[in-house]
Specification:
The longest helix is centred in the N-terminal third of the chain and has 17 residues. A six-stranded mixed beta sheet has the order 3-2-1-4-5-6, with helices on both faces. α3 links the parallel β1 and β2. The protein has about 190 residues and is of the alpha/beta class.
């Protein structure tokens, strides 16, 4: 959400920051390999329960790549990457390059408005791949799922922000004031 302040510094800052970066990422975060593996397996389990098929995976950006790697490894499908941040024809990092028309699953850590996901969908479709599904760990419930659904993309989220803050509040990890501030900022349904 901080990128919104580059174009409009008057916007209020989000009361919550979801840092899902790994320790070795360009912007280091708290996630260890064990946590990334667990999260990737949760994502794959969700896809299995919803009968989502795919022939390859790609991280929507650097934050999605560690999770895409786990899903690729446990699913036995190639993981595609873009070289030097370009959103042109991807290359296969592991496994062989899937054929044109193959189904590619986009993987990311969170979804907010969905704009960065749409850029990846568009690039993959221009390269000749079929893209119908995206999996994320957390839906911030800021309109991205709905926006992509209107364009024919199904977003599968392991967690929704409203569920998370309700759980944190119930466990005493956040105050009622913090709960209310987050719910108001993201216009989330109040669940307590």
């Amino acid at each position: 959400m901080l990128h919104r302040h580059k174009t409009d510094p008057k916007l209020p800052l989000s009361p919550i920051c979801l840092n899902l970066s790994t320790r070795d990422s360009p912007n280091p975060g708290p996630l260890t390999g064990i946590l990334v593996d667990w999260a990737g397996r949760c994502m794959r389990g969700m896809l299995d329960s919803e009968y989502v098929g795919f022939d390859a995976v790609v991280g929507a950006n650097a934050a999605g790549e560690p999770f895409a790697d786990v899903i690729s490894r446990i699913s036995g499908v190639p993981r595609l990457v873009y070289l030097a941040g370009e959103r042109t024809l991807p290359c296969a990092l592991n496994g062989s390059m899937p054929q044109t028309g193959s189904r590619v699953l986009i993987v990311d850590d969170v979804i907010t408005a969905g704009n960065s996901k749409w850029a990846t969908v568009d690039a993959l479709r221009r390269a000749g791949f079929e893209v119908t599904d995206i999996v994320v760990l957390i839906d911030r419930e800021y309109g991205g799922v709905e926006s992509l659904h209107e364009r024919g993309i199904h977003v599968h989220a392991v967690y929704r922000l409203s569920e998370m803050i309700t759980w944190y509040y119930a466990k005493g990890a956040i105050s009622k004031e913090m709960y209310d501030a987050i719910a108001e900022y993201f216009q989330l349904p109040v669940c307590i």
